[in-house]
Write a structure and sequence with these properties.
Length: 157
């Protein structure tokens, strides 16, 4: 069985405190996900606008049309901007880590593998960006499925 810290360590510069960066990355993504759940409030208001209250009953309005799905989720992407900006800054921070550690930058450039410096600076943030993008697409798909379930078929735009 692999230890928890063997795999992540190879994607970061040697001796780098990767756990702190990983925790910040997870926090930013989790915060963006939690804030994007405001979509459900927008969906609730859109569904409520389709119905009229008549004699204590809910009746579907005759010519009601729900707002398009893109309109409801248009602003939820902005909550993930800090996540992606942090990962871009992490690439620069990894490079600056080599610069601040004596002659490590010079030693990394002398390694037989030409791309070792570049790889250790960008590999972890790019993998995190890719994983974040896949999770965002999955979240978007879940939002769309719930949109199709909640909006009556005759009210879809």
């Amino acid at each position: 069985m692999l230890r928890r810290d063997i795999i992540p360590r190879k994607y970061f510069p040697p001796g780098y405190d990767y756990e702190k960066e990983t925790n910040i990355t997870l926090f930013l993504f989790g915060t963006g996900t939690a804030l994007s759940f405001q979509y459900y409030w927008k969906l609730y208001r859109a569904v409520d606008a389709l119905y009229i209250h008549k004699n204590g009953k809910l009746l579907l309005s005759e010519y009601a049309v729900a707002p398009p799905f893109g309109h409801l989720v248009s602003s939820h992407w902005m909550f993930f901007a800090p996540f992606f900006l942090f990962l871009l800054a992490a690439m620069l921070h990894h490079y600056m880590y080599y610069c601040s550690a004596g002659n490590c930058l010079y030693l990394m450039r002398r390694l037989p593998k030409r791309g070792a410096l570049f790889k250790s600076c960008v590999q972890a943030p790019l993998l995190s960006m890719g994983a974040g993008t896949v999770l965002l697409v999955f979240l978007h798909l879940i939002f769309y499925i719930i949109y199709l379930i909640m909006i009556p078929g005759e009210c879809l735009p």
